[in-house]
Amino acid sequence: AYERRFPTCPLIPMFVASDTVSEYKSEDGAIHVIERRCKLDIDAPRLLKKIAGVDYVYFVQKNSLNRRERTLHIEAYNETFSNRVIINEHCSYTVHPDNEDWTCFEQSASLDIKSFFGFESTVEKIAMKQYTSNIKKGKEIIEYYLKQLEEEGITFVPRWTPPVACKSESSTCHPRRPVSPAINIPESATKEGLSSKEILTTSSSPSEPTAGTPDDKLDADYIKRYLGDLTPMQESCLIRLRQWLQETHKGKIPKDEHILRFLRARDFNIDKAREILCQSLTWRKQHQVDYILDTWNPPQVLQDYYAGGWHHHDKDGRPLYVLRLGQMDTKGLVRALGEEALLRYVLSINEEGLRRCEENTKVFGRPISSWTCLVDLEGLNMRHLWRPGVKALLRIIEVVEANYPETLGRLLILRAPRVFPVLWTLVSPFIDDNTRKKFLIYAGNDYQGPGGLLDYIDKEIIPDFLGGECMCEVPEGGLVPKSLYRTAEELENEDIRLWTETIYQSASVFKGAPHEVLIQIVDASSVITWDFDVCKGDIVFNIFHSKRAPQPPKKDSLGAHSITSPGGNNVQLIDKVWQLGRDYSMVESPLICKEGESVQGSHVTRWPGFYILQWKFHSMPACATTNLPRVDDVLASLQVSSHKCKVMYYTEVIGSEDFRGSMTSLESSHSGFSQLSAATTSSSQSHSSSMISR
């Protein structure tokens, strides 16, 4: 089929004619070398041709076919203007070392323009344009000649075999039976990313369907329709990995689209892709993930309070998932359901995403293998930094990254508030670099401007809560009622404890004996974060700064109270001789926290030095209209004094370098976020934010 383009080809208008300069054939027929002088009518401006003094350009092409080694080498160079412009091209076709039905294609080309009458730049553009157009037409040309051969009844070419010499005149020579057809893959077709299986029919019956078995599926139409652009080597990796699974894996074999995701996640390193794919298949079998959509019904609390759902598709045809994270009570969901149920729900969302990708591929007639996620952060606050919730989020990210690679096509983060950089700093290290590049982050109403939401989603389907006209059926979320929370015993029995033994510490607070935690800050603009529950009593939370270190902490003996402190400690750091304003300063307004409340907050430090977090006993104020205390105040005071105050707390420091590094990655995600990040990381003033959950 490739040879039929000579001496001229009507499908290549610029290829006017060719003459054979020399030709060589070996005696055994294994080697065939032919050299041609090709006449080309280059699509160049008439003025340029007039200045150059030529109407046609001549190239010399040498084709070397070695039937013994099953290789084809093509060399071409320009004859015209060879002293001014040097063009060299080399193409080679060889048999794949692991599968002789596949042909490997390699190509290299160079263009060196030394001088061309002052039109060097123009000549370079013309050369690149011609080269590109020839590559694009390659598949069309080879299919034309293949069809021509089929019409002539030529569907099979026997492989070359060495001639057998007869020992005597009386002996009968039987020609050897051909093993398989020769595979001469045309240059242009392989450039388009086609394997040898797509070019030549190896079946003796040309009418046999090519998609009958998995091994025969990878024809050009199948690739274009379901898989997208693949190079021959990428297609080779896909077929090899699938065949290996069919031979070794006992169980359901994933579809080509899913295998391809794992290959892309590891840059088509077949060994690395096989490792993570096998781990994922084992995980899917252990957790019965293949049946999750048919057998698992989400609890009602998830259906009511999980503020996420599918909503049409984006401009590229990808399924669109909307998550109103700022309206979601992550702490309430974890306390009511536990981490496992939340994880299972996220897995069902991903499985539904895979199903929707298949549906959209059929609807739009092109491969769609990923979805777009729109995350609205309106309402995000320090409540979302509740550490068990963050830990659950990190585990979900870890599981999804390992088992659903290359499924997130784009992540649009809208209305990011000032607290978002802190959450991003905690989460971003666990997100794959390739995934992180797909994030687009908008602060405030930036998503409504140029480069915003309209670039990715049609106006008709922008949700109503973002100013659009489309009614979005995603639940609005809200606080999960505490009546739905699991008891400690239930959490213990179901092995979904909230890490209180590992990351939280308990402390007792007494009247006149606060509990204090020392945090040393070396670099300004570091971030101190806290998360605590007031288990008993009411307390006042303060943050102080001192340039000098306090004395080693003293554990209160509680002798003045004549009461021991089971299950909690009490540490005091601020010396009684220290004076506020001289030895230390208050960097935040006092925060009164009542029994049963959960508090999450952060503080961007202004100076280096020593910061002290303090939980102090809160005295009940007397009634304003009388000197006598109210009955409720007396009862509350008695209750607190008899049981003391107790807090469960967790603190963490995000280093200045890490925090600024995460801000840099945010700024690279979208320039519109730089204004927000600059305000958040400013070292000229300190910022703090606390959120109380009742």
UniProtKB/TrEMBL annotation:
It holds the Pfam family CRAL_TRIO_N. Gene3D superfamilies: CRAL-TRIO lipid binding domain (3.40.525.10), GOLD domain (2.60.120.680). InterPro entries: CRAL-TRIO_dom, CRAL-TRIO_dom_sf, CRAL/TRIO_N_dom, CRAL/TRIO_N_dom_sf, GOLD_dom, GOLD_dom_sf, PRELI/MSF1_dom, SEC14/CRAL-TRIO_domain. Residues 1-154 form the PRELI/MSF1 domain. Its main location: cytoplasm. The keyword Transport does not apply. Residues 198-210 have a biased composition (Polar residues). GO terms for molecular function: RIG-I binding. Residues 298-474 form the CRAL-TRIO domain. Residues 500-653 form the GOLD domain. GO terms for biological process: innate immune response; negative regulation of RIG-I signaling pathway. GO terms for cellular component: cytosol; Golgi apparatus. Keywords: Cytoplasm, Golgi apparatus, Immunity, Innate immunity, Phosphoprotein, Signal transduction inhibitor. Residues 194-216 are annotated as: Disordered. It is found in: Cytoplasm; Golgi apparatus. Coiled coil: none annotated. Interacts with RIGI (via tandem CARD domain); the interaction is direct. Interacts (via GOLD domain) with SLC18A3; the interaction is direct. Interacts with SLC5A7 (via GOLD domain); the interaction is direct. May play a role in innate immunity by inhibiting the antiviral RIG-I signaling pathway. In this pathway, functions as a negative regulator of RIGI, the cytoplasmic sensor of viral nucleic acids. Prevents the interaction of RIGI with MAVS/IPS1, an important step in signal propagation. May also regulate the SLC18A3 and SLC5A7 cholinergic transporters. This is SEC14-like protein 1. It comes from Peucedramus taeniatus (Olive warbler). The gene is Sec14l1_0.
